[in-house]
Amino acid sequence: MKNLIFISIAVIISFSACGQKLKKEDVPSVVTAKFKTLYPSIEDVNWSKENNIYEAEFDLNKVETSASFDAKGNLIETETEIAVADLPATITKYLEKNLPGEKIKEASKITDSKGVITFEAEVNNVDYVFDKDGNFIKEVKEKQ
């Protein structure tokens, strides 16, 4: 019985750490209106909220995509999944050198509201972030 309680608590904590899932009606109308302006053909959207940032997850032309907005409906960034092979060569070389033998699980291209592009490569539940030229910026441990 103690194990069941412990597992239940662990599951609840892990879901809350990932951001709060929201129904469309719980997202401010200014945010959903901005989303609809940017992506008029998208109907199937999963919304979540973390630290007053609203995130829409959806498929755009069969590519996993997300868009983040502040509470006023301002676009913060978009993140688009890309093939690992599409990462700049400098990124894969950096990871091969610094994490020998490890595999890149996922890769994405992030564009902020000013058009600045960064890349993210996930290895062992850590996101490695690089600028558009493939220079290492930082690592971010994923919340579990």
Tell me the total number of β-strands. Answer: 9
Question: Could you name the CATH class of the largest domain?
Answer: Alpha Beta
Quickly give the CATH architecture of the largest domain.
Answer: 3-Layer(aba) Sandwich
**Number of self-contained structural domains:** 2
Mean pLDDT: 88
Task: Determine the N-to-C terminus distance.
Answer: 24 Å
Structural class label:
alpha+beta
Q: Which range best describes the helical content: under 10%, 10-25%, 25-40%, 40-55%, 55-70% or over 70%?
A: 25-40%
> What letter string, H or E per element, gives the SSE order?
HEHEEEEHEEEE
Major beta-sheet overview? 9 strands, antiparallel
Order of strands in the sheet with most strands: 1-2-3-4-5-6-7-8-9
Q: For the CA atoms, what is the radius of gyration?
A: 17 Å
- β-strand percent reads 35-45%
Predict the CATH topology of the largest domain.
Answer: Inhibitor of vertebrate lysozyme, Ivy
User: Helical element count?
Assistant: 3
Low-confidence stretches: 1-17
Shape: elongated
How would you describe the overall organization of this protein?
- The protein has helices spanning about 1-15, 30-40, 90-100, and strands at about 20, 45-50, 55-60, 65-70, 75-80, 105-110, 115-125, 125-130, 135-140.
- The protein has three helices and nine strands; from the N terminus they run H-E-H-E-E-E-E-H-E-E-E-E.
- Strand 4 (about 65-70) and strand 5 (about 75-80) form a beta hairpin.
- It has two domains: about 20-80, Nuclear Transport Factor 2, Chain: A; about 85-144, Inhibitor of vertebrate lysozyme, Ivy.
- The longest helix is centred in the first third of the chain and has 16 residues, at about 1-15.
- Strands 1-2-3-4-5-6-7-8-9 form a nine-stranded antiparallel beta sheet.
- By secondary structure, it is an alpha+beta fold.
- Mean pLDDT is about 90; it is low at about 1-15.
